[in-house]
Please model this.
Amino acid sequence: YEKIKPIRRLSKLTIGLLSFGNISRRVAEKLRGFNLNIITYDPYFSNEEKYNWVKFVTLNELLNNSDVISIHTPLNKETYHLINKDSIKKMKDGVFIINTSRGGLIDEIALFNGIKSGKIAGAGLDVLEYKDEIDYPKSPLVKLDNVIITPHSSWYSEDAVYELQIKTAENVYKMLSEGKPLYEVKKGN
Model:
């Protein structure tokens, strides 16, 4: 046990949620029971009073104060490489980064360098910037022991596939019958 890296108590950690959409709110609700300090940055979220147990902060505050950063942001022109050399410099030493959203949110070279330098303790990545799974081996991140990569498969279960098929069919039906889909991604959600 002397060779095991120190483990921190969950209740002493600050978890930073990048974006506060549906998925991020569910993550926050699950984390709430662990008595963590939960902070979030979402410039478009407007229902803060409903989540008074979550602290809404600026992006710089989230980067400066988070022990773990969990990314739930859509990828667009504003968020491309949101995690980059400059944002990593602002992070706490020993931060962990989790990305289950989109690979293009992270500059992989900057992440690799941050991990190699020790600034970032590790990363859990369900996505990489490479679009094709065949390109995943080209990422320098796959060679690091403190990086877990699940190539867009952390969602997978037989039940999830079935639910996806049902929701897709319902969405197509609603779009064809009412002209509006059930599930729509809007700026700010």
